[in-house]
Amino acid sequence: MTEPAGIYVHLPYCASRCGYCAFVVTTDDSTRGRYLTAIETEAALVAAEASGARFDSIYLGGGTPSLLAPDEVARLIDSLRGRFAFDDGTEITLEANPEDVGAAAARAWARAGVSRVSVGVQSLEDAELSAVGRRHDSARALAALEALSGEGVAISGDLILGLPLQTAESFRGSLRALCEAVDHLSVYLLETEKSRVLEDDRRRRPERYLSDDGQADAWLEMGEWLAARGFEHYEISNWARDGRRARHNVKYWTRTPTLGLGVSAHELWGDRRRANVSRLERYLAEIEQGRRPLALDRELSAVEAAREEIFLGLRLAAGVPEVRVAEVAALAGDDRLSEDYEGWLSEEILERAGGRVRFTERGFLVSNEVLSRFV
């Protein structure tokens, strides 16, 4: 292994469930103590397999990791440092909701080793936040960003495009205010089909939502505005100032090895794709019996690995080597893929540049259709 690996830890506890959430989460924190012990046990179970590997990122995701007490965050990080070999300057990211961020928490996280905080802002319009069940308002979000700014940690902010009641003007306002406070930005299109409540609401009251064309226009305008202010669009949903890319997340798109700890966590280690079970009680029970609760554990074939290289690598603005796309298209067993590939190029969804193939800015908007053909 030449590149340092990463570790993802899934922390599923939330104070409430947001209307658009499709992740494995729970609002019952009665098992939290058992769960943190289980994470330490799982780390011990995989440590031997990871012996000799170097790591340079930890990502605490969820769920809402910021719900943990600061001493629990410190305990978790110290436990991982005790099991695995980390490089100096390791990136340690904590996902946080604005209502959990204050000066004391920010200080404690930094002291525990957290170097990067990803804040779930989602919008800076109170009506939009309320419409999807967020527990913070815009004032609380801005106060959270200010508290973090004094601790020397890198700050990333999330926004959602397509929220109920959102307009092109309100999205523009949220974007511009957020970019005053962060050096990394993730913007996601609202996937109403993943929430029955939102899907039904959009069907019954479409006037509450930006049209697909309106969202596309807002997305393209956003990209131009961010580029003019020094933000690099380096992945479909991610923009960063110089040197502020999300190191851990880039590992997923470049197929760099990562371990996944916790309920529903996924990993790529060696040539194997693995995923833990998605039921919390089963995860806890199996860990407490001394075994990893794997729902998936399979070795990837050379063809599967090549397809992953394409559909993950194309998410990056740098794209993938053109010769690899041609090879995978020939091996795919999909008679129409080569023809469609040429069509995507002629329609300027994809473009060739310096021996590589990448999405155009407009192409990113329909990337799911293209990427699904390589899965």
Plain-language structure description:
The protein is α/β, with parallel strands linked by helices. The chain has 2 domains: 248 residues, Alpha-Beta Horseshoe (pyruvate-formate lyase- activating enzyme); 73 residues, Arc Repressor Mutant, subunit A (Orthogonal Bundle), CATH 1.10.10. It is built from 15 helices and 15 strands. It has a 9-stranded mixed beta sheet, with helices on both faces. It is globular and about 55 Å long. The mean pLDDT is 95.
Task: Trace the largest sheet across and list its strands.
Answer: 7-8-6-5-4-3-2-1-9
The total number of structural domains is: 2
The CATH class assignment of the largest domain is: Alpha Beta
The helix content is: 40-55%
The number of helical runs is 15
Query: Which secondary-structure class do the elements indicate?
Result: alpha/beta
**H and E string:** EHEHEHEHHEHEHHEEHEEEHEHEHHEEHH
Shape: globular
Key descriptive features of the protein:
single chain, 375 residues, alpha/beta, pyruvate-formate lyase- activating enzyme, Arc Repressor Mutant, subunit A, 2 domains, 9-stranded mixed beta sheet, 3-stranded antiparallel beta sheet, 15 strands, 41% helix
